[in-house]
Write a structure and sequence with these properties.
heterodimer, A: Aldehyde Oxidoreductase, domain 3, Aldehyde Oxidoreductase, domain 4, 3 domains, about 30% helix, about 25% strand, globular, B: alpha+beta, Uridine Diphospho-n-acetylenolpyruvylglucosamine Reductase, domain 3, Enolase-like, domain 1, five-stranded antiparallel sheet, 14 strands
């Protein structure tokens, strides 16, 4: 162990290829004889297919093959998480066919695939396919989809209800607690639908090798092994050892590239059929229609307080829109990743969530950065700030009064919530107090009072959040319905020359694993970072892996690597003891050297590596080689938390909101690379603030997305933000070897309610006592809120 | 996002470009390509031939001709806002700086923008308040169209079949004349939800001439005479401006609406931005 790299802002080793345009993404790969696929998609949200005529298209020059639902409609992609109805019945799980043959269920539903000699020809031919549709009425809004007489997305799913579900204390207890409350804050709101918008559109290449009878799928995914498992075992019935899945450089995912998409199986099937590689790369327009969306909750929440301002109960009714089909983890998001976070940072004694998950004629909804936890945080933190306004108390004092007291999870036990989870360690007062110091709270309130007399109102909004990361112990997620384990694999192969190849089942699509993991390995082995290579993304080289999502890579994947490093050092010590003719107990490993304690006798890491592979002078009964693989299955989730504070200026004449300051004090446990963690927080803040002010998929009543392009869907930009003011508190995770909690989603989870709260606070400062403004808080919506 | 296949040719002179356009009726003129290419990628437009005029030397110039500034149609937005000859026409510079981003300003052209006549484009409001004249050339020769007869409707101009814009003539500012452009941006595209150009001429504290034009508000950019009527002959102060701005976007005009701004809100913004543009022109912000 040395201490040269951990905790240092080492520059990212992967950036050279990325910022010089040399990243190798799926669409950059060109294989000999490659063909190109175009998918013909439904222009209607809901319609019966009466006939499909591909004859004109098939006759066009350059067309290789055309597939329709007739040929492949019996294959479908699965859902990876089973949730049961309250009464114990299994959730409704209608098939999601690779190509639809009977009824299309959302705009963008796939009807036919054309494979041709070029993308242009494939699209030209697709336009020549004649489809006769009988258009049906569509249902878009989850709360309306459950009403009697609403159109049925799947004919055999009554009321469009996939399942209903509840968590927390018995509802009667929560009702009783609220009945006793001296104040109840009621908030009805929408957590709007978001499009993930990864920079790299999804891209897949199927390649079948008839000499070795082997398939290769190149895919822009966050988890290649998971895709292989799902596609082989649940979709196509292919032998897993004959399928290689490669996720090369991937340009962002934000959750949307976790899932097994129909097009992955389609290019695989097509490549076998025609004996040539088949590439499909979506257009940006297709990405808006087919990449799984995020959020889309309609909620009514009530929080009760006693006369002292202590929270006595929380009651919630939410409709979650799952879209037309179940995406891989769609059912887990509104339930186990959302309902379990409703304790927040507070000692709320009684909590009940009643959740109804609903099919609609819209794009599938699944995890998007934060996945369920932003929805929980938005609900709680909006309620806290609004309650303070309604009760005329300070929002920070209200929080301090209700916070769970600090606990380290080592000498003090974890905190058992009323919604299943047990928090690992936390100091919630600490992050809020630090945030308030950075803000200069008293001065701000004075400035706000002055601003209230002008056309530029000032407001402050708070959000003190917690999340559950590092998903998670396999046994726990299995008992909750996951159809997979959630461990991670880390293999460390020391080469004979002492150079180190590390194979991780985590997958980097922007997170900087090649740097962070190398820092850990270099420090543990006392070698230069240049001697470490981090390899990921190929099922033929990496033994297995569950991939990257839920801020799990370092906490779970990093821990698996550490387990293997421990085994390397332990074996190295045995080799060193033999060569140095001492007991293994007398060996200490410091700064890359195996020393005999109390002497100057020592062997370097490179000497030991060479000896392991050239074992001439070697312990009896010890295998040659220095190569270990480990599976790490955590004992609990990790629980990062923090305090986000937004200061906004609202233009009274136009309703336009400008973020003046944004303060984020996050506690993500130990930090390996502060610069990378700051970068993760920055990106998360941009997305979280983006949800509050800019983003949102808008459907019309016919199920058409009216803003499915960057001309109309507002992505946040650098000039929308001030310089972020970041600070950190460190409460190590007590149950993993690195003490890390995860930082990928924190910024996105905490920031959204802080912004909405700040705008509401600004409006109250000028006497406009509104409870809610629907996100995104466009200028018009804020202006209208001030007209009433 | 994959265009149909299209032929491409680069014209070396205006005459050649017009000949090509006459010979190929479904051809399209390509200048900066910042409106046409996206439309082609979405297959909203599928011309058989693109005639690239961006590199015709006679179309890319900016010259100070004493009583006016003449801008070649293929001058980029950046060419214009960085040119000495237009610096005192603040509306010109302020509008140009708010178009797209650096890359767009280096490629997009003034002629292309106005020939395309996007109802939310910035330049039309500026050309209207500056009293510009559009020089066009076609199979039947050359002619001039006044700015207020050029922007006719939704993507509709006074250009006849086969004509292309060759230059824009802008009269120099009169004594006491100042201009400004203020824009409320559509947050995604950053086109104008409301773009307001204002020109005010002040003599001895009195407003002697004024023009206010809007883009983004209606199906084409237009001069708003209701506002100017309330300005001329009045003292150049905030009270005058506020009263005049309240008359903006009234009367029998079509008001656009979209998911960013309803008609009522757009109308309200027109009044706010008329006030801001006029205050900017009068140095009263």
């Amino acid at each position: 162990m040395s201490n040269k790299f951990i905790g240092k802002s080492v520059k990212r080793v992967e950036d050279k290829r990325f910022i010089t345009g040399r990243g190798r993404y799926t669409d950059d790969i060109v294989l000999p004889g490659m063909t190109y696929a175009y998918i013909l998609r439904s222009p209607y949200a809901h319609a019966r297919i009466k006939s499909i005529d591909t004859s004109a298209a098939e006759a066009m020059e350059g067309v290789v093959t055309i597939m329709t639902g007739e040929e492949v409609g019996h294959y479908g992609v699965p859902c990876g998480w089973q949730v049961n109805f309250k009464n114990g019945d299994t959730m409704k799980e209608p098939p999601h066919p690779l190509l639809v043959k009977d009824k299309v269920r959302h705009v963008g539903d796939a009807v036919a695939m054309v494979v041709a000699e070029s993308r242009e020809l494939a699209q030209d031919a697709a336009e020549a396919i004649m489809i006769d549709y009988e258009v049906l009425p569509a249902v878009i809004d989850a709360s309306k989809a459950v009403e009697e007489g609403a159109p049925l997305v799947h004919d055999d799913v009554p009321n469009n209800i996939c399942f209903d579900w509840e968590i927390g204390n018995p509802k009667e207890e929560v009702d009783a607690a609220l009945a006793s409350a001296s104040h109840i804050t009621t908030l009805e709101f929408v957590n709007q639908r978001l499009a993930p918008n990864a920079m790299e559109p999804r891209s897949y290449i199927g390649q079948y090798d008839n000499v070795y009878d082997k398939y290769t799928l190149y895919t822009s995914t966050q988890n290649p092994h998971l895709i292989r498992l799902l596609m082989c075992a649940f979709v196509l019935g292919l032998p897993e050892h004959k399928v290689r899945v490669v996720g090369p450089d991937v340009g962002g995912g934000f959750g949307s590239k976790i899932y097994h998409y129909t097009e992955e199986a389609l290019v695989t099937l097509a490549s076998k059929k025609i004996g040539r590689p088949v590439k499909w790369t979506e257009t940006r327009s297709e990405a808006f229609l087919t990449d799984a969306h995020g959020r889309d909750h309609v909620t009514k929440a009530e929080m009760g307080f006693d006369a002292d301002g202590k929270i006595v109960g929380l009651r919630i009714k939410t409709f979650a829109n799952l879209g037309a089909y179940l995406s891989t983890f769609s059912t887990a998001v509104p339930t186990y990743l959302h309902g379990t976070l409703l304790q927040g940072l507070y000692t709320t004694p009684k909590i009940h969530l009643d959740m109804t998950c609903v099919f609609t004629n819209t794009t599938a909804v699944d995890a998007y950065r934060g996945a369920g936890r932003p929805e929980a945080t938005y609900l709680l933190e909006r309620l806290l700030d609004l309650s303070a306004l309604e009760m005329g108390v300070d929002p920070t004092e209200l929080r301090l009064k209700n916070f769970i007291p600090a606990f380290d999870g080592v000498t003090q036990p974890g905190y058992q919530t009323n919604v299943a989870l047990q928090y690992d360690s936390g100091n919630y007062h600490g992050v809020l107090q630090r945030g308030l110091e950075m803000l200069g709270y008293e001065d701000f309130r004075k400035a706000q009072a002055e601003a209230a007399k002008t056309n530029k109102l000032l407001g402050v909004g708070f959000s003190t959040y917690i999340e559950a990361c590092g998903i998670a112990p396999s046994a726990v997620v299995g008992s909750l319905g996951a159809r997979a384990g959630l461990y991670e694999v880390g293999q460390v192969r020391v080469q004979p020359t002492g150079k180190v190849s590390v194979f991780t089942g985590a997958h980097s699509h922007g997170q900087g694993h090649e740097t962070t993991f190398a820092q850990v390995v270099a420090d543990r082995l006392g070698i230069p970072m240049e001697d470490v290579d981090i390899i990921h993304g190929d099922s033929d080289t990496v033994a297995f892996g569950m991939g990257t999502y839920g801020s799990r890579s370092l906490a779970v994947g990093g821990s698996a690597i550490v387990k293997s490093l421990d085994k390397i050092i332990e074996k190295g010590a045995k080799i060193a003891a033999h060569k140095l003719e001492c007991s293994v107990d007398d060996i200490e490993f410091i700064d890359g050297k195996f020393n005999v304690k109390g002497t100057d006798k020592s062997l370097g890491f490179g000497d030991i590596a060479l000896t392991a592979y050239v074992p001439h002078v070697y312990p009896a009964n010890l295998e040659p080689g220095l190569d270990f693989s480990s599976f790490y299955d955590p004992t609990n989730f990790t629980y990062p938390f923090g305090c986000h504070i937004a200061v906004v200026e609202v233009d009274k004449e136009t309703g336009t909101t400008k973020i003046k300051r944004f303060i984020a004090v996050d506690d993500v446990g130990n930090v390996i690379n502060p610069m990378i963690v700051d970068g993760q927080i920055h990106g998360g803040l941009a997305q979280g603030i983006g949800q509050a002010l800019f983003e949102g998929v808008e459907y019309d009543e016919n199920g058409q997305i009216i803003n499915a392009s960057y001309m109309d869907y507002t992505m946040p930009r650098a000039d929308d933000f001030p310089m972020f003011e970041l600070d950190r508190q460190v409460t190590p995770c007590p149950h993993n070897p690195l003490g890390v909690k995860g930082a990928g989603e924190a910024g996105c989870i905490g920031s959204t309610p802080a912004v909405t709260n700040a705008v509401i606070d600004a409006l109250w400062s000028a006497g406009h006592k509104v409870k809610d403004i629907r996100m995104p808080l466009t200028s018009e919506r804020v202006w209208r809120a001030m007209q009433s | 996002m994959i265009p149909s296949s299209v032929d491409y040719t680069r014209a070396s002179s205006v005459t050649e470009a017009i000949q090509l356009l006459t010979d190929n009726p479904d051809a399209k003129i390509l200048a900066g390509g910042h409106s046409l290419i996206p439309a082609m990628k979405l297959r909203l437009n599928a011309p058989s031939l693109l005639i690239d005029i961006a590199r015709i030397p006679e179309l890319r110039f900016i010259s100070d001709e004493g009583d006016k500034v003449v801008i070649g149609a293929a001058s980029t937005h950046h060419d214009i806002i960085s040119n000495e000859a237009v610096q005192d026409m603040r509306a010109m510079v302020e509008a140009g700086e708010l178009i797209g981003d650096t890359q767009v300003r280096n490629m997009g052209t003034l002629g292309g923008s106005i020939a395309h006549a996007d109802p939310s484009a910035d330049w039309p409001a500026v050309l209207l308040v500056l009293g510009a004249s559009i020089q066009v050339q076609g199979p039947n020769g050359e002619r001039f169209i006044a700015a207020n007869e050029f922007f006719l409707g939704f993507f509709m101009t006074g250009l006849d079949e086969g004509e292309i814009v060759t230059a824009i003539h802008i009269p120099k500012l009169a004594e006491g004349q100042q201009t400004a452009y203020r824009k409320f941006m559509q947050p995604a595209s950053r086109f104008a939800i409301v773009g307001c150009g204002a020109s005010v001429t002040v003599q001895d504290g009195q407003i002697t001439d004024a023009k206010v034009a809007f883009t983004g508000v209606s199906d084409a950019a237009f001069l708003d005479e209701g506002v100017t009527d309330a300005l001329i002959g009045q003292p150049a102060n905030l009270e005058t401006i506020e009263a005049a701005a309240n008359a903006a976007a009234e009367g029998d005009i079509h008001i656009n609406e979209d998911h960013f701004a309803s008609q009522a809100y757009r109308k309200h913004l027109a009044k706010v931005y008329a006030k801001r543009a006029l205050a900017g022109a009068c140095g009263l912000e």
